[in-house]
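Progress narrative, work stream C.
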Amino acid sequence: MRARDVMSESVFSVSADGTVLDAARLFVNCRVSALPVVDQAGSMLGIVTKADLMRPQPEERPGRMIVDVMTHEVVIAAEDTPLAELARLMSEHAVKRLPIVRNGRVVGMVSRTDLLRALIALETGHDESGPRCERDQQLRHDIAAACRGRSWSRAQQLDVVVSRGVAHLWGIAPSDLVRKAYQVAVENVPGVKAVKMHMHIVPPSGARVGL
């Protein structure tokens, strides 16, 4: 497996000419812990985290700019970077996530959790490349398409890892019914050999469970 097989492709970013308040709103609304900072052309200039916003500044003032608090030197990786190399980079540089970049633009993000999910999926303890790996990558995209925009697709933090045709699904579902809907949808994707559900069920706040 490589970065492209496990990365989160839905990456929120923030403009370099934005303020700290703009970043704070995105952190709260999008429920992420880091945001790539990009210029008007979409090229990556740095990264800003929640910790950056909370770091004491010499002079506290409203309207602080993101470029004043972001990290400029960012450890990045390419889409074809092997998982072992991603793990090494995270450990060596003490970072929790790696932006995946293509031609200067962020196309995904790999976190430590993504690597752990891949470790679970790779039950045999070794990886393969070539046509089989390419089929797994295509299946991952097919599964995402099968689950997108459905009336039941209400899981949060949904992620998919495919290994040798076996699809592993993570996320937080509001009910067992929703969890089952995801399972059935993925089972019906051509080429999927089996589905392993790692989803947790967390009812919406205020919902009644049982009697």
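Work stream C, second folded protein:
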Amino acid sequence: MDKEVKLVKKIKHLLKRAGIPRYLHRYGPKKYAFVTHALALFIRQAGKLSYRRASKLLRELGFMVPTYSALCKMNKRAASILVRLFEQTSSFSSVVVASLDATTIARSNPSWHYIKRIDRKKPVARPLKLSMAVDTRRKKIIALRLRAKPRHDTKDVQYLLQRMPQPKILVADKGYDAEYVHEYCFKQGITTMIPSKKTTKKGFYRKKQRKRWRLRTYHRREISEALFSATKQRYGSSVSSRSIRTQRSDIYCRAILQNLSLAKPEIFNSAHLKQKLLKPL
């Protein structure tokens, strides 16, 4: 029960830092505060549950939470609020090395037995594309973007950089090698560690950034791939929501939980340790 209590405290502290009001609606009976909705939505993602099972589980544990239909409506309404909560978990004063990478999230998760029964060779649903920026030192997600339609990796670079603390070094794979990406980062004062493609030899800003190439720094890109793998193992590689708005809410919930799970307690603060050591016995 200690983990559940700790998670509740983290969520309350996060809502307070983001300045979220206790109730989102002005009129009507104020029966459930927003913290109860947020707790149920986070538990749903952490346990890979449906709205009905998440509401039932929390009620059996003694929490007063809304019904599953109210949680479904709140997940659609709270899309912008979850973005504000995510920004509180990823707002840092400085970032040294940031890594960009992209992956796919399935819209459905049918069993291979079902696929064989309906005489299909593989699922035909188009997956979602998730682009993510990771702070390689803190190993936290600092920016993300979810797309319903496939687009090239370079189309999301400027969007992610505008919504994250400006890093000193940006690492990415060959899929992000484009002249306008190098030019934009150079004008922002960011060093790019992006390998060039075999067929690419030209580019003024690409050549200027290549002079600062360092293989050891480039291998920091593996941290973003490891974070993708850890997130999918914890919260699943597919989403059960149907609309893009609720799918985006689910992804932001997972990113918030991932950042909260990597948060360090205050006892590891150097000033706190120094005060404890100097305290007389």
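The two ends are 33 Å apart (CA to CA). No further action is required on this item.
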